[in-house]
Amino acid sequence: MEPEKAIRRKWRTVRLLTFTSILAFAAIAVLLFSFYLYMKIIGPPPLSIPQSNLYYADDGSIIGESNSGQKRYWVSLDDISPTTIDAIIAIEDRTFYSHHGFDIKRIGGAVLANAKAMKKVQGASTITQQYARNLFLTLDKTWKRKISEAFYAIRLEINYDKDEILEGYLNTISYGHGAYGIEAASQYYFGKSAKDLSLAEGAMLSGIPKGPGIFSPLISFEKAKNRQLLILDAMKETGVISNEQADAAAKEKLIFIGKHPHHRAESAPYFYDAVKKELLTKVGLDERIVTLGGLKVFTTLDPKQQEIAESVIADTISDSSDIQVGFAAMDPRSGFVTAMVGGRDYDESSFNRATQAIRQPGSTIKPLLYYAALERGFTPSTLLRSEATTFKYNDNNSEYTPQNFNNQYANREITMAQALAVSDNMYAVKTHLFLGQEVLVDTMKNFGITTDIAQVPSLALGSSGVKVMELLNAYSMLANGGDKVEPVFIQKVEDYRGKVVYEATQNHEQLLKPQLAFVMSHMMTGMFDTKLNGYATVTGASIAPHMNRLYAGKSGSTNSDSWMAGYTPALAATVWTGYDKGSEITLTADKLYAKNIWSQFMERAIEGEPEDIHTFKPPVGVEPIPIDPVTGKIATQSCPTFRLIYFANGTEPKEICHH
User: Fold this and answer.
1) Catalytic site residues?
2) pTM for the full model?
């Protein structure tokens, strides 16, 4: 009887142990599954890695970089030489592709080795653990950090595949000298991309992360070389290279550069600032991404034009002068801003006079006024009297008495074409008041000028301030035949993985009549044509002899501002010169700076380019007529001086000139 009871007790104990074990295993399984599920629910850890932003000109050259002192350029595994990847795995984590974040065998071996030596002589961190440490953690040696490191390592393994983890690791580890990631290291040490590293170079770099202050070849070549040989041996052991390859790599002579490739833009610093502002305002990125997001920003800058602009300005304005400058150039067809100078010395003043300064444009506003007049029935031959005049306006008979330059007047009727060429102020104010003061205000807004506009009689003479970029944009609309454009600084933006996050587009809209835009442009070529001389000389006479192409342009001046703006169909440029505090420009040489800068820039920028793209081509609906510049009538043999002037069909003069 007693043995039967013992047997029953034994089976009960076995069943209890079995049931308890099953429950324990089930509980562990549930806990593990819950932990896995929790890791999946909270998702991948945010990879908040400060990376250098790179800014490219339109020819692919780098014009600037922003970083926090850590040079880091993210590249994919495909853009890293395979032997460099093999070297890293061989020396850092041979079982990387088979473990799940932790190498238990290495951990056990490290514990025994450290216990035997009574100090830490061997580490067991996997690539995943090191990546977690680089991304999220401090380097303090506490249990809390080790637990956090393990937690992040598990999150990485669950939410990313092995190639993504390896790519991240290779892009975040420190290689010393401010270089973070394999691409920055490759550029710094060898002056080449990571995809072009040789076996010897990759093995050398792979030894540095263990201790950049010890194993950098620029600090101790002997220690770096010994570690390179150790890595080559490890690669032989793992079978990724042969003995012959290892021997050849060990003997390869390496040439070290020791220089980071990208610095703050020495050229175009004002343009560079404008681009960063556009990233915030137009692209809509936050400030941290704009500074350290690993972006590739492809801009519209033309390095050749930028160099010409900077050179011309430096050569033209006397070193002893305090005159400042605002300059910008644009392709009227696309709106691409190709060059910009916001001042004579960025280090002295980063204030951008091309995008920020609001100055009175003077007579450069007249083409906008006369375009509005063309839309309302005026033609290049429309006659108005040029004489000293006091204008009365508004219901309270307010008075306004403008003056011509040097108080010179024709004291007769002159044509719009001649009035524009010699910049007659009386013609402009009469036109302005005849049309109604609100017309010019609306026209300026239609041409893209957003600065507040004062509706006054003197608006016709440019009394209401504008920005250089605004006037350039307005002239570009005339140059392209009336198509709405806006200044574009950024062609596209890619994130650190090469995904396009922004690409520029233009909402092409025909705002001006192509025929009238062309008539206006052709009238603006008259400032360089001495056939339009009258009681005064055409305003472009001083620079016309130095110009080899036909340009449309207009100069302007106030007591404290000097302007020159103009274009071909493929290039527009605007220059402002003056004193920052608005002091009067008194020296004759200072008054000529804007014209000289503009003409020299245009000539040099266009030199060697196809003639066709810079040639004004009349659209359908306009006709050239030989016009007597004095009377505005059709020229005949009795009026031998004539200029071909374009008219919209049906608006050409009918009367014949008889002197």
Assistant:
1) 92, 363
2) 0.77
